[in-house]
Amino acid sequence: MTRWPSPLYEITTIFHTPLPLAFRWCTDFSPADPGLAGFTSQRKPVKKTARQIVFEDLSDEPKGWDWTRWVATLHPPDRWHVEGKGNRGDWTIDYRLTALDDERTELAIRGRRRPTAIGPANPRKAGLERDMGVMWKTYGRVLERDPRRRPRRRR
Description:
By secondary structure, the chain is an alpha+beta fold. The protein has a single domain (8-147), classed as Alpha-D-Glucose-1,6-Bisphosphate, Chain A, domain 4, CATH 3.30.530. The protein is built from three helices and seven strands; from the N terminus they run βααββββββα. The longest helix is centred in the C-terminal third of the chain and has 21 residues, at 125-145. The N and C termini lie far apart (69 Å).
């Protein structure tokens, strides 16, 4: 018996920054990332190489702990793939950046979640896409204010 496929969640957002900086910034996976979007979860780096980053996210939710180990495989200069295994569900997510005019960059995200036996059911497609869209727009505003995106002045 074959299983029904889990829903495909898709969002896009625009960053007002060039693609190379957007790629570096989005694939940094810093412990500070959850706080940038207003989350109280904790992020712990586990391993980092030129092509792969492993990190864990942990948050205290009303119904108990939510823990996920993420493995991000980088495909510079414009995409990365992330697999997440956690106590409340497993994720497969693809991220792709596209350069637009005027030093803008589009981020397209496509992902699927497979619930675990103890985890909650998949969230509603519209709700999750809306929430992730808001989160990535927040990240975009932080990126656009990042001092590293401004050109250095010559002395």
